[in-house]
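Provenance and format

Records in this collection were gathered into a single text stream. Each protein contributes a sequence line and a token line. The two records reproduced below are adjacent in the stream.
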Amino acid sequence: MTATAPAEHHRPDKPAATDERLLHTSPWKKLLGRPELGSVVGAVAVFVFFSLTADSFLKASSLGTVLYAASTIGIMAVPVALLMIGGEFDLSAGVLVTSSALISTMFSYRMTANVWVGILVSLLVTLAVGVFNGWMLTRTKLPSFIITLGTFLMLTGLNLGFTKLISGTVSTKTIADMEGFSSAKALFASQLTIGDVGFKVTILWWAALVALATWILLRTRFGNWIFAVGGGADAARAVGVPVVRTKIGLYMGVAFCAWVSGQHLLFSFDVVQSGEGVGNELIYIIAAVIGGCLITGGYGSAIGSAVGAFIFGMTSKGIVYAEWNPDWFKFFLGAMLLLATLLNAWVRKRAEASK
């Protein structure tokens, strides 16, 4: 016979259990819990460093240059960060930017159509690549590293092969004289002048994407799904999260931003080199990791990716303003990656210890 302990009656001298959701959290604990805290500290350090070592770094004209360099990385770092929060990678993101630009210009040139027709075709094809990556990942259960590495290699070959087949060289023909070029350039590659400082329109694209991604992560059901699948796909599936749709949607997000970046590349320079973009996927991942995203998924923020891209912009241009040998850039980028990762890990430990 098993004895059952009597239910404990509430005593006036013993406080009742309190729902943890009703507990007050101090601003310090909230700050420690932010994924981008480490990257913000790093950004301040980089800013101060180049402010002291490069006289022209603090000029107003330099701000537009730094922000432009950051925006070209940041536009792609945003969806890559969301994908990493969802627990996956995309090694084809860099060459997909070039593929998007090549499709737009070659379709418009060969079909003698309005430039906007080529842009629309490029959007559809680029999104289809994103769907392919997500579908293959969920269908085969292979690691995203393998799936997207295969896509990377195929796109690299297609970019070069089709460009040489159609134009006879490794670069595309000009489409600057075609109908719709000026309006497309205004949307994807124009420049706004405020005072004496010029700001590329990519900065606005970047800011809008960061705001949209932050809203999705923090205010929508899809954002909850992203964190859930990044924390554990099987556990997320068990509680009703549509894992397949979520991951395909994340890859489509990467594809959409690759399309935006590709159109900027095309309408900024008019022609596109088929070999561009190789290696940029690592820079997007670095920006997301510096911004606080975990390699293992389930943790990070879009704002953090923006800070990581801003650090990249400050470093790439700060070295030029300081008149250093640009060969040192990759060294500083690698050092920042390690330092930011260590700092983010320390911040997370402090946040967990303070709970």
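Adjacent record:
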Amino acid sequence: MIRNEKRQRCRSIIRPLAIAAAAVLALSACGTPSAAPPGQTGTGGAANGAAGGTKVVVGVGGQTLLTYLPTTLAQELGYYQEEGVNVELQDLQGGSKALTAMIGGSTQVTSGYYEHTIQMQAKNQKVKAFVDMGRSSGLALLVAPKNEGKIKTIADLKGKNVGVTAPGSSTDMFIKFLLAKNGMQQTDASVSAIGAGSSAVAAMEQGQVDAAVMLEPDVSVLTKRIGHDPVLLEDVRTTEGLKEVFDADAWPSASLYAKADWLDQNKETAGKLAKAIKRTLEFIDGHSGEEIAAKMPEKFAGGDKALYAKVIEELKKTLSKDGAFTEDGVEAVLKTQRVANPEVGDKDIQLADTYTNEFVK
């Protein structure tokens, strides 16, 4: 059974977000903008009039997800252009797909989770993160409405189908970590790609999956759609939840990363990108959710910026303030990968080669 105190903690988090959920309801029936198909241009970029500076294509692992808000907000504030770099954002369906696009050469930089740099080192490919946007993964494992009362613990996921944004993405790694942490095999539960945004909400609401790992604003949208608090098995959107699940006070998540050779050859450009994101993080820290929402693309708010602002205000606490990685934080991510990802396992990982703070000093 889920402990009563955990239920109370989860509900205290969900309720204020549920009030704000209507903010992120899009024009679609399921309520939030869906991520663009792989390879399609997202919000902002050369196609939308950005001019001047070195051209850089940045793949985003789900642009409507608030964990990647700084990437889009920097575009909307004009910070990339002011720093002298012409950024085109490509909205992809998950972190693993954004990573694949970069490795394949269709993008130069990825706005994705830091853990991918560790995964790539385990495959003898050098990828390095150069600005950290998130202090927490912002993930939550929710039970689908059809299974409320049936799935009460991680153990109850045995033989079930769990939705993730995409196989290999951080949402996938999260469920694998939780299974291992609870003494289960990774094969005890299957995973299905449900993307982010409206497709993820629909998959849960319509019972296409038994549970799902989701991020904001999708958690709040689902809450609004079903009309009550969803059952949460684990939740790392708060410092308390982060400590409980990962035994850490920081867990670097959304970041900008690139191939190490690209970074070495484009230090000036990387520095401009990092400075734009750092300025954006400072803007977020110094402004209200309402002020931030006013700068974001209109469609992200689903027609109600006042409510969208409440979601942003609640999620601000999960973002970095200065863009810098911490040693304790990257160690916590590696610890998670050793448990969740057999390709990492006990391999010799040199963390110093997976990130740098030189561009955010």
